Amino acid sequence: MSARGPVRPGFLAIVGCTGAGKTALSLLVARELDAEIISMDSRQVYRGMDIGTAKATPRERALVPHHGLDIRDPGERYSAGDFGRDARRWITEIRSRGRVPLLVGGTGFFLRVLTDPIFREPPLDRDRQAALEELLGTLERRELERWVRVLDPERAPVSIAGGCQRMLRTLSVTLLTGEKLSRWHVRHPTEGKPLAGVVCRLRVSAEVLRERIGRRVRAMMAAGFVDEVGRLLDAGCTPDDPGMNGVGYREIASHLAGAITLDEAAERIRRSTRRYAKRQRTWFRHQLGPGVVGVDGAAPLEAQAATVVKAWRERTRAPVAHLAAAASAANAEPAHP
Predict the structure, then answer these.
(1) pLDDT in tens, 251-270
(2) How far apart are alpha carbons 60 and 57 in whole angstroms?
(3) How far apart are alpha carbons 197 and 317 in whole angstroms?
């Protein structure tokens, strides 16, 4: 919301943790609203990674246009800043066609970069950055954490919580520019103005989610997930690549290396996916802010879609003067674990 008053939402978003049922819901909503889908998944951007990321199938993409899929090789990085620039362009193009931009995914930082833009990333020499990150990548995680705490103590908690890739980014920016990443966030301009949108959070209980994750892992295995990972490794990808370090790919790579059995790999994938989903639920519960539309993920799919469609139509058709009231009154999300 700007200082001039309420702003009409420019996009619709469906968010939720892994296994919540976002894909099926988004396809139904997209057909109802004549929308185009923008993926907000940090792993679905990678080519050749289809089964393990639950990417929309060719048939589903034929039914509804999708953006943000298959735009990087697994060895390439794709940051929230990259997504922010791409998504702004996709949103503009979709709206110019008179259609609804529908953002769908579980990567919360991808949504945040649109509603609360981050700083403009500093220009870095890609060759020097790659060489530095290759060198830093040989360090154990504990040593990486120590370097982050020394070089950028203000950024350290967020960086360490984000894992090795985020720590490498923090260190590479600091070492290659001579300025801490935390200072870049404070002193340099953002990528663009905040965008207003209608955000719907798909909610499911821990018990339902556990069952769905188990079913999903079984389906991935039956669909040829092991062969998918084998093809990626044969093509020169490694488990340390930005795309390959996602849940599932590391475990199957360990199995193919002979370190664990396939049953052990499947169980590790289930456990890792449940932990990841728990982190996603926590993030969405605390970071989305007021006015989020709660959607019962255990309700019939048609009822879920009706909730999302109603929220979009009410908030986009309401006079500007009444948008603030609509945002707080229309299906505001109740407290939920």
Answers:
(1) 999 999 999 999 999 999 99
(2) 5
(3) 13
CB neighbours of 167 closer than 8 A, spacing ≥ 6? 144, 145, 147, 148, 159, 160
Amino acid at 106: G
Model's pTM, two decimal places? Answer: 0.75
The one-character DSSP state at 162 is T
Using a pLDDT cut of 70, give the percent of the chain over it: 88
Which amino acid appears at position 53 of this protein? T
Tokens encoding 328: 């707080």
Contacts with 249 (C-beta within 8 Å, 6 or more apart), sequence order: 49, 52, 229, 232, 239, 243
Computed over its alpha carbons, how large is the radius of gyration of the chain?
A: 20
Q: How far apart, in whole angstroms, are the C-alpha atoms of residue 300 and residue 252?
A: 34
The edge-to-edge listing of strands for the beta sheet with 100-105 is 66-67, 35-39, 100-105, 11-15, 197-203, 293-296
Cβ atoms of 181 and 173 closer than 8 Å: yes
